[in-house]
Amino acid sequence: MTLDPISTGIALEIGKIVLKTVWEGGGKVAGMLGRTVDKATQNLVFQASQKYVENYEKRHGILKVLGMREPVTLESVYAAVQFLDDRALQRFESVEALEETYRLSEGRSFQGKDCPKQEGLKVANAKQYLMVLGGPGAGKSTFLRRMGLEALKGNKGAYQPGYIPVFVDLKVFNKGEINIEKTIAEEFRICGFPSPEESTQRLLQQGKLLVLLDGLDEVATDRMNEAISQIQNFVDAHKQNRYIASCRVAAYRHNFRLFTDVAMADFDDAQIKQFIDNWFRREPDIAEDCWKKLNSKDHTAAKELTQTPLLLTLVCLLYERSRKFPTNRSTLYERALRVLLEEWAAEKGIPQDDLYKGLDTKRKEMMLAEIAHDSFQQNRLFSTRREIADQIEQLLKEILPDEKGVDGLKVLRSIEVQHGILVERADGIYSFSHLTLQEYLTAQHIDDQRQIEKLVTEHLTDRRWKEVFILVAGLMRGGADELLLLMEKKAQTYLNTPKLKALVMWADQATAGSAGNYKPAAKRAAAIFLHLDLDPDRALANAYAHALAHILDFPIALAVNLDLNPDLNHVLVQSLSRALSLAYTFEKTKIFKSVNFVVLIARLEALKTKISRNNQPIEFCRAFHNKVLQTWCNALNLNLELVDLSEAETEALDNYFYASWLMVRCRQAAVRVSPTTWADIEDRMVTVRD
């Protein structure tokens, strides 16, 4: 490998550091090769330095994970890291406090948007001793490797110049002697530095090394105490140098006296986009398309996975192969779960610490699925350590009946350290690492007829369960027919008053046999949408009626609600403009069988002359709005009473359209559905059944 001019310059800088440190300091090397540095010695050191840069870039500057076909340079996909001020998490003293804070955030990130963050590079430059904590795949090792690459650049890099980075993979201490200085000397020896042991000693004495200690959690349990002692002693003996260490947060139960502890923050939108742009740097159009789709409502839960670099890498790989995200979203989440349970540890060469014989991946998954389901059923996202440990013990008595004296706390800790699926959010308070994974595991647990009936009966219109319904449909390998029929039956119960039934019957009669080339159910939903849009107080049900029509391929735009502007004339103009816009739109769609939109538009245009330029009293505004409403109802042959829904009726209609919309989403996610079953359901949608 031939170094580029920049790397050659970096090698020269490293050579100068070595020569200055070792020869000016005297010692064995200077005694062997002479106090003066001749040309041959310089060449020897510079060649070794070139080899050192080459080795570091080959071993630590390349990324190839999760079955990537081709390796990529780490710098080409790297997104700037941020550290979380973990003191922000320590303020929570109870499960209830965490639950309240999370729900107030109205997001899917457990870290929240207001947690203080610090730029990783700045922290690394400011702190001589730094301990980086994070979950599996959070980017700890990548950050250490990147800091080494920056240090290698000397004056051209973003890290403090004058330090030679040495990357020490701590899991090498699982075998053989634990000797950090000897490990560093070996890095110099294989590159051809003269007398590497003496050179290492002099560099350490002069504080010229950036020692990167990666993966403390990957040291075997039976060697951990010795490794910690050796690290402490080494740092104490060579305080002049700089150190960055990493450990999974769940495994960090030590007090490294000199180190500042920081936690990896979840990726925010800017970091996710930067990573995607970097990943598809040669195809910016694809990067933009990937980012756009990821931010669509259809992929809200998938985007949550991208908050960690490991799963963001998985998402980019899947998108790279097909230029789309899996239609069946359970495929993506199943793959993500498999990465956390098996693949990531295997790729990093971390031995699996299974506490009990028979507690394999499948059984772990079963156990996690029941824990996820039970907490979701109780509307809880957080649980205490003791609650989860007790549940683990109870489940393992059933899963592994031959095991005696099962320790739930040890199993919880093992899962937390190895897989990062259950994580400690505050002292003794746990949650799943991603809400998406909890939803997927909850769906996995719902695998028989009784549980599906309970799901539909209790949670059909609970928006919190939306993703679970869609995932259940995607996991039903035998077909989702029964789920959809149960959903349809439950949805019909929301059309529970004579007025609601009359409204739906009007939509059916008004659109049946019309010229518009759309599905009958879409026409009926669009008609209800138009009816609801006549009154801005029906905004929520309006939105779901629109969503149902849209998902059934009806191209209408959702009208905006009235702006409650103090200028009442402005309200009147806005109201009339919206009415005209809808009239023009629906005239083109031809979904109504006998509505003369030309006459309707003319009458609405005539109403414009009634609006004075001067502000009108509120009584006039109400009368004007009623006039617009009456004009619409006359044109649509719609009884004005059907527009006046009670609050309870509006809520029921909202639930009906939400349930119908969710049925369509479940149909789209399902692996198998009988065409006949779905055709019948769709034909009955937005109708009154006897």
From TrEMBL:
Q: Where are the transmembrane segments?
A: none
Q: What is this protein called?
A: NACHT domain-containing protein
- PANTHER family the record matches: SLR5058 PROTEIN
- State the InterPro entries in the record: NACHT_NTPase, NCH2, P-loop_NTPase
Organism of origin is: Phormidesmis priestleyi ULC007
Q: Which domain of life is it from?
A: Bacteria
Q: What is the lineage of its organism?
A: Bacteria, Bacillati, Cyanobacteriota, Cyanophyceae, Leptolyngbyales
Domain (NACHT) spans 128-235
